[in-house]
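Q: What structure does this chain adopt?
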Amino acid sequence: MHETDLHLEPNEASDLCRVFGPEVLSRHGWDRAFVTVLDEATAEDALALLVHTAGALLDDEWSAMRVFADAGLDAGKTEDAEACASRHGYVYLVGSQFGKKAGPLAAKRSWIARVSEQSIADALESGGRATLEVVRLRFGLHRAINDALADVELLPMGTLLQQAYVDATIAVGEQKAKRWAGTVLPTDHPVNIEAAEFRANGNLLLGIRYPVTADGHPLLVELENVSELFGDPNAVPRCGNVWVLGDVGGVEAPAGLRGLDTRGGDRFDAVIGDLDASGKSATVLADHPEGALAASEHVRFELPSDTAGGVVSAKVVHHFGDIRRVEGVAVDHEGHAHYVIDEEGHVALRTLVFD
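A:
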C-alpha cells in the first residue's frame, strides 16, 4: 500500500471515478486519471483531477489539480458534493441530499450535476472553466429514495434525528413558504448519499451512508432517469431497485456506503464504513453511538441483471485497520485499487497493488 499527499484545498475529498481515454491521457503524458469531489465547495468548485505520470512507478509522480467550472445561473446555489461517476463521456456529481451534523436537511445539498470530460480537458489546456450543468432537486431525490425504501425495515430514527433533520426541515419549508414545502414528510428518514456508480443498464446506483437496514447493512438505490433530469425541466427523480449488502455491517456495528466503482457490467467495488465521523457532535451518532464502530473495508459484489432488488453478498478485498476516513475507490486498467482518504490536515491517495 503506497500513499501520496495530494495537497488539495479544502481538505475534504469524496469518491473517485476514472476519466479520459487514451488520446487525452497520452497528450498530457499520463497513464491514469481520476476525478474526486471536494465537499466543502460549491458544485462548480468541487472538481479535482488526480493524475499519474506515464512510465513512473505506481507509488510515484502523482499530482492533483483543481478544475473550476461555470455553473451559470446555478453558481453558488449548491454545496456538499459527495459522489461522482462517469459514463459516456460525462462526469456526474451528486450532492449528499443531507444536512450539517446538527441538521436540518439543506436544499443546497439536494442536486445532481454533470460536466463533459471534453470540457474538463479543454479547461485544463486553456486555463478556463469547464461547463457544468446543474439540476437543483429541492429534495426530489430525498422523496424518491424514501418512497423506494418504504418496504425496507430501516434502523429506527431516534428522537434527536427526527427533530433535527425531519421536523426542523418541515418547519423551515412551511415557515418560509419554500417551493419544496411538502416534499419532506414526517415519516421520512434523512438520506446521506456518499457514493455513486452506473449500472450496465444506465441506472445510477446510489450508495447510502445513512440510513441502513434495521440489521445494520448498507443500502443501494437505483436512480432510473438520470438523462431525463438533464433533458426535461419538469422531470422529477425516479428511483427503483433497492439492494442490501447482506453480509456487511451488523446490529452492533452498522455500516454504510462510502465509495463505489464498477469493474464493468454489474460488478462493483465499494468502500463501506461508519455512519458518521465520531468526535464531531453528529446527531446520527447521538441517537446511534454504535454507528461509529464499523471499520472501513473494500468489498466486491455483483448485482443480478434479472432481479428487481434484494439482498446480495459481498467479498472483503481489503481491511483498512485503524484508517477510518476512506472516502472513495477506483480500480485501474491493471486491476490495482486506488483510494482517496481524508486524513488530519490533508487528502491522500493510497494504492493497493494486486499481484
